[in-house]
């Protein structure tokens, strides 16, 4: 699988998320401004609640739109072992039990999951603790995930 295919899939997923968020924002706006939702007394808050929802949905649309624009302009580069893991890296981490997890270190859209065939890739950003700890590392290095009793050590198996 190629990084360009992964980037295309992330963009397509963000486009679908944006379309869904836009529909939700439009519905919330229509609900907030509908004549039947005008408050009849101080306890009638349906219109106010719908307005808060519409504002939140509008912020979500803006956030997804910004992430989409960022990914459309992302320049993918091959992994440079001298520089270590940088933005745009596709990283495979392994745990002590032989399990593997795949991550894409992206500029935005953290938490987004995309599936390429039977492989699930989680998008993380450098602002996330794991993303930050991956920066500058290379294959064979280890990173810690979590803290205290929940801490796990993961090995960087592959970087694309």
UniProtKB/TrEMBL annotation:
Keywords linked to the UniProt accession: Elongation factor, Protein biosynthesis
Domain of life: Bacteria
Keyword Protein biosynthesis assigned: yes
Any one biological process term the GO annotation gives: regulation of DNA-templated transcription elongation
The keyword Protein biosynthesis is assigned to this record: yes
GO MF: DNA binding; RNA polymerase binding; translation elongation factor activity
One Pfam assignment: GreA_GreB
Transcription elongation factor GreA/GreB C-terminal domain boundaries: 85-160
InterPro entries attached to this UniProt entry: GreA/GreB_C_sf, Tscrpt_elong_fac_GreA/B_C, Tscrpt_elong_fac_GreA/B_fam
Name this polypeptide is given: Transcription elongation factor GreAB
Provenance organism: Pseudomonas cavernae
């Amino acid at each position: 699988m190629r990084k360009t295919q992964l980037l295309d899939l992330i963009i397509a997923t963000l486009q679908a998320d944006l379309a869904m968020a836009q529909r939700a924002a439009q519905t919330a706006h229509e609900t907030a401004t509908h004549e039947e939702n005008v408050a009849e007394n101080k306890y009638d808050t349906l219109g106010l609640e719908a307005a808060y929802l519409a504002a939140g949905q509008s912020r979500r649309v803006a956030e997804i739109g910004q992430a989409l624009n960022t990914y459309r302009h992302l320049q993918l580069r091959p992994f440079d072992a001298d520089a270590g893991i940088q933005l745009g890296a596709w990283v495979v981490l392994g745990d002590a039990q032989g399990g593997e997890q795949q991550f894409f270190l992206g500029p935005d859209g953290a938490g987004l999951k995309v599936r390429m065939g039977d492989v699930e890739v989680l998008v993380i950003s450098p602002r996330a603790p794991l993303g930050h700890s991956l920066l500058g590392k290379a294959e064979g290095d280890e990173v810690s995930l979590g803290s205290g009793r929940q801490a796990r050590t993961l090995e960087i198996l592959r970087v694309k």
